[in-house]
Amino acid sequence: MRYSSCWATFTGYPTVSEWSLERDAGPLLVEALRVLALKAAVYELTGGDEEKAELLVPAPVDEMVHAVLAQFTLMSRMQADLQVVFPHATELEDFGYTRGCVTDDYYAAAGWGEQPLRYWLDAAEVTRRLGILDAHYGPAGFGRGGRSHTITFDTQPTPAAV
């Protein structure tokens, strides 16, 4: 229950300007894999300190990390094959990513160049964008960043739908 603020995909991917699954999934996957590599390195270098390995990450990238980790069998095989642990503790997550934090230092040290700012959004910018999104979601019946709605579904299909 501590992680319920980001259970819905209304709070990650949609904070990307003009979000498109077709265009953005590939680059976000790259960023998620990079984050997992950084977290694995921190985890290993700190002797398995899961708190230190839970790096600050922007919402869109974090959401893709969750999508990658949901591929349990594949990730289990990768960990076994690579002899590495990809740590992720949702209860330790902090959504306070800001440009210039230690995550950025690690990213630069890995030699991947500049993070794509389309996805690496400061927490303040994510909050601002979520406010804009909520203003659009509300009239459609969605509340609390997609964590509730007022839509009533028919319990029985109409004859025309069958």
What's the arrangement of secondary structure elements?
Elements: H1 21-45, H2 50-53, H3 59-69, H4 72-82, H5 102-109, H6 123-137, E1 142-143, E2 148-149
Antiparallel strand pairs: 1-2
Q: How would you explain this protein's 3D organization?
A:
It is a single chain. By secondary structure, the protein is mainly α. It has one domain (4-161). It contains six helices and two strands; from the N terminus they run H-H-H-H-H-H-E-E. It has a two-stranded antiparallel sheet. Strand 1 (142-143) and strand 2 (148-149) form a beta hairpin. Helix 1 packs across helix 3 (59-69). The radius of gyration is 18 Å and the shape is globular.
Entry summary:
This protein has 162 residues and is an all-alpha fold. It has helices at 21-45, 50-53, 59-69, 72-82, 102-109, 123-137; strands spanning 142-143, 148-149.
